[in-house]
Design goal:
single chain, 135 residues, mainly alpha, 4 helices
Length: 135
């Protein structure tokens, strides 16, 4: 079996981003002296949710990318989709700190969420089409 090196490269970058999101939660917990939950602090709540959203979406998408790569799928779609996911996951935390109905909110949170979901759906469809007879 071939190592999914494209996916592994992106996962390494995602791991660094995830660590950064985690450190932001820790930093805000210490600053506001909150050991559990968000203590009613909006910035901490946003940091917790940005971290959680990442954890909710990135692993399943990375798993789908690896499955396609291992199965011998074309590399360009994997690069394009994982690159789009990286952009989405970089945008999303910036939107989490913005007020609703602002440009930062729309581009960051909404844009990041929409791109993430489109990437997830695209990977799912690619896998399903690959599983069809003759795929």
């Amino acid at each position: 079996m071939k190592l999914p090196s494209i996916t592994a490269s992106y996962v390494a970058v995602f791991a660094l981003l995830y660590a950064g999101l985690s450190l932001q939660v820790v930093r805000l917990r210490r600053r506001h002296r909150v050991s559990f939950g968000d203590g009613g602090n909006a910035d901490l709540r946003s940091a917790i949710r940005a971290h959680a959203h990442f954890a909710e979406y990135v692993p399943i998408i990375a798993l789908m990318a690896a499955a396609l790569e291992i199965s011998g799928s074309a590399t360009v779609p994997i690069h394009v989709l994982m690159g789009a996911l990286l952009v989405a996951r970089l945008l999303h935390p910036f939107g989490m700190y913005a007020k609703p109905k602002t440009m930062q909110f729309s581009i960051g949170r909404v844009g990041g969420t929409v791109i993430t979901n489109l990437v997830m759906i695209a990977f799912a469809l690619l896998i399903l089409f690959r599983l069809l007879p003759g795929g």
